[in-house]
Every structure is written in structure tokens, then in C-alpha cells.
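Colleagues,

For the teaching module next term, I've prepared a clean inverse folding example: a structure given as C-alpha cells, and then the sequence designed for it. I'd like students to try predicting residues themselves before seeing the answer, so please don't circulate the second half yet.
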């Protein structure tokens, strides 16, 4: 055989996401069959990651992707986390363009999940976020409180909001302060 692989338990200060990435790289390099990954990973989990695993249905606990999703969800990492990281990403001074481009691409893939979604669903996710970004402030706050999943839901909600709050129409109308135009 090859080199012996020694995995270490996840520590309380470990980033669950980084821990899983490291595990996936080791599992890939050692050519462990994907159907065994969840079972191999389980004894190395601690804290909230372990609780997420423990709370899964026994059949789901055998599927690595389900285990990974449960851990990331339990520890507060979601597609929205990746979208926010993407929006905050800056070009570091002295960085290599290829490395920065790869990081941006990685964040896009983690946000949009193109392997799990159709191209229409990916386009919908991008359109929804852009629509929310350009809404007038009060309409945006109203819609964001509802955590909508589709552009159609957001559009209907904004229409309802604007029917009640006419000054938000198009975000262009402003209240006049009594002075005339000059």
C-alpha cells in the first residue's frame, strides 16, 4: 500500500468548511470510494458537526453529500455565505491573476451550485439577487425579510409593497419640501 493516512478529529476552533475540504482531498488522493466517505468521516466529527451528523436519518448519514450539507447548514454556512464572500472579494495587492480568478470562480460555483441546479435555476438565482440589489431601500428591506427563493415571489411582493407605499414607485419619486422649482 501507499503512505499511511492519519486523520485528526475536528477541533473546536476548526473551520468546518476547511476541515471538509481537507477530508475530501485526502479521500480523493487515497481513492476511497465515495460511498464510504460519510462512514470514514463520522468518527472525526465533534461539536455541532457531530450533532448535525447524529441528527440525520440513518440512510442519509451514509451519503457524504447529505452529511456535508447538514454540517455546513448546522454551522451556518450556506450558498448565501458564498454569495456574500463573492461580493466582498477584493483583488489583493501583489496577487497572481490566475489565483484570484480561481477564487472568484470557486465562490461562484459554491454560491450557484451548477452541478445541482439547471441553467434556468442558476440564472434565476443571479436575477433574483440583482433585482433585490437594485430595489429602492424600503422595498428591498421589505422583500429581504421574507427570504424568497424566486424572482416571481420577489416581484409579487414588491408590487404589493408599492401598492401600499406609493412613494416607492420606481424609487425615483421624492417628497417635495414645499419650495417651487427654479
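(Answer key — instructors only)
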Amino acid at each position: 500500500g501507499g503512505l499511511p493516512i492519519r486523520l485528526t478529529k475536528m477541533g473546536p476552533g476548526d473551520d468546518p468548511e476547511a476541515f471538509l475540504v481537507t477530508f475530501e482531498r485526502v479521500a480523493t488522493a487515497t481513492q476511497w470510494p465515495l460511498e464510504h466517505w460519510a462512514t470514514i468521516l463520522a468518527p472525526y466529527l465533534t461539536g455541532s458537526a457531530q450533532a448535525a451528523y447524529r441528527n440525520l436519518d440513518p440512510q442519509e448519514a451514509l451519503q457524504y453529500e447529505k452529511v456535508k450539507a447538514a454540517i455546513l447548514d448546522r454551522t451556518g454556512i450556506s450558498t448565501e455565505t458564498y454569495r456574500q464572500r463573492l461580493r466582498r472579494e477584493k483583488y489583493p495587492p501583489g496577487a497572481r491573476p490566475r489565483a484570484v480568478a480561481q477564487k472568484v470562480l470557486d465562490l461562484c460555483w459554491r454560491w450557484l451550485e451548477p452541478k445541482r441546479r439547471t441553467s434556468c435555476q442558476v440564472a434565476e438565482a443571479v436575477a433574483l439577487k440583482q433585482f433585490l440589489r437594485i430595489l429602492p431601500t424600503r422595498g428591498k428591506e421589505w422583500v429581504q425579510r421574507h427570504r424568497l427563493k424566486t424572482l416571481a415571489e420577489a416581484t409579487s411582493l414588491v408590487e404589493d409593497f408599492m401598492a401600499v407605499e406609493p412613494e416607492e414607485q420606481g424609487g425615483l419619486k421624492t417628497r417635495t419640501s414645499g419650495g417651487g422649482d427654479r
